[in-house]
Every structure is written in structure tokens, then in C-alpha cells.
């Protein structure tokens, strides 16, 4: 029986990509004012992000962002502008990061039947991204030495925070490797948020696949039925 539903943050509950694009555009606009002929392009900033991330995927996300921006600016002799543009980036990144349209109603409905938690590798703090007060607990990689997904320790911390056995927890996320394979290996039930309708990229089959968060409450109720265990008292047949 599922007692707790725990969410990944970015691209699961939060529509992050438009916020990143907007924040990068603000940074690039500011750099173009400083150096109209020299300023980097969005593609260069994205390439530097990818390179820095590939070098050390375990690093905290804000460190990756800062180092990638430093690298881009250094190539244009603009490193002295790093601090200001990091601040500018994070100001707009948080200001613009908001839940998907069906997220808050889905969370409210789930809270009627489950403990609802939030556990992320990233830096999308719930209260800065329109999700303040939504969760029974929040876990962030790097806080208190918590390693990033897919580390088993991450999911052990999820279970401890939920006060439930791994098999009583449904982990919900968009990243197949981090949010399906890894929690399944930890003994959790898994829900893959597959908005783009991708093929299953690996051998581990999620317990549930959804294209929209609004499908989650009924999907979880059906899972409980398939377990041969009655759904939560008010969750059946809705
Ligand atoms: Mg994600």
C-alpha cells in the first residue's frame, strides 16, 4: 500500500526550462550592453554548462552554473562581471520558475490520501518556486551531506523522511535514470512523468507512466487496486 508520494522538482512539478531561458536572456542582454561586439551567445553559455556538468555531475547545481558562467565570461575577457551576472541569473531564474498548471491542484488532491514530499538534486527550493507549504518534508541534495540521485543514500533519506518503508513510497519524476531506475532499485514504486511521449529508455518498467500531473491521483489509486490492497478510503473510483 502506498503511503507516501515523493516528487522530483525540476521538469516534474516545476516548468524550469522557460525560467532558465529567460534568466540567460537577461544575462546575455546585460553583457551585450557592456560589450556589444564581444558578448557570448546563448549557445556558448549552454555548451559551457554542459561541459562543466559533464566534468563533475556530483557538484551542487549553483556551483555548476557559476563555474560555467565564469568559463564563458573568461573567454571574452569579462570575468570581472561574473558576480553581478550570477546574481542576475539567479534572481530571474527563481522569479520565473513556477509549477506546471496542474501541479498545485494535484498536490492538494494527493494530500487527502498520502503524505506528500519533495526530494531534489537541484536548487529549486520550494518556497522560491511557488511550492511553499505544499509538502510534509523537503530534501535537497548536498544539504546535510546528502548525495545526489541516483545514490542509494538519497532514497534511504527519502524513506526516513517519509517514515515509511521503500515499498510504501511512490517516487515521481521526469528523469528515467534518476526517478525510475534509481528509486526502483531502492525498492520504491515509481511514476515516470513522460510529457513528450518518449520510448522507455531502459529495462526497468515504471509502475505508472503519466503525461500530465493531473493523471496521478487516479493512477495511484489504480496501482493500489492492482496490488490487491484497497485504495485509501476516499481514493477509490475517483
Ligand atoms: Mg527532474
TrEMBL record:
GO molecular function, one term: hydrolase activity
Keyword Hydrolase assigned: yes
Record keyword Hydrolase present: yes
Domain of life the protein comes from: Bacteria
A Pfam family hit: Hydrolase
Keywords: Hydrolase
InterPro entries the record matches: HAD-like_sf, HAD-SF_hydro_IA, HAD_sf, S-2-haloacid_dehalogenase
Protein name listed in UniProt: Haloacid dehalogenase
Organism field: Catellatospora chokoriensis
Amino acid at each position: 500500500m502506498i503511503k507516501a508520494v515523493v516528487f522530483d522538482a525540476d521538469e516534474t512539478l516545476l516548468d524550469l526550462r522557460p525560467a532558465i531561458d529567460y534568466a540567460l536572456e537577461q544575462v546575455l542582454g546585460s553583457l551585450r550592453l557592456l560589450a556589444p561586439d564581444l558578448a557570448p551567445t546563448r549557445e556558448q553559455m549552454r555548451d559551457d554548462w554542459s561541459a562543466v556538468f559533464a566534468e563533475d555531475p556530483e557538484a551542487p547545481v549553483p556551483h555548476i552554473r557559476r563555474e560555467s558562467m565564469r568559463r564563458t565570461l573568461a573567454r571574452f575577457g569579462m570575468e570581472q562581471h561574473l558576480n553581478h551576472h550570477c546574481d542576475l541569473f539567479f534572481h530571474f531564474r527563481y522569479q520565473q520558475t513556477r509549477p506546471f498548471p496542474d501541479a498545485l491542484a494535484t498536490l492538494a488532491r494527493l494530500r487527502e490520501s498520502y503524505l506528500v514530499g519533495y526530494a531534489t538534486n537541484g536548487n529549486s527550493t520550494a518556497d522560491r518556486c511557488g511550492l511553499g507549504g505544499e509538502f510534509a518534508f523537503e530534501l535537497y541534495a548536498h544539504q546535510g551531506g546528502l548525495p545526489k540521485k541516483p545514490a542509494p543514500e538519497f532514497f534511504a533519506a527519502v524513506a526516513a523522511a517519509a517514515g515509511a518503508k521503500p515499498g510504501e513510497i511512490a517516487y515521481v519524476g521526469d528523469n528515467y535514470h534518476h526517478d525510475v531506475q534509481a528509486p526502483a532499485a531502492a525498492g520504491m514504486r515509481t511514476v515516470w512523468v513522460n510529457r513528450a511521449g518518449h520510448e522507455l529508455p531502459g529495462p526497468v518498467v515504471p509502475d505508472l507512466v503519466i503525461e500530465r500531473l493531473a493523471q496521478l491521483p487516479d493512477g495511484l489509486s489504480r496501482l493500489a487496486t492492482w496490488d490487491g490492497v484497497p485504495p485509501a478510503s476516499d481514493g477509490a473510483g475517483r
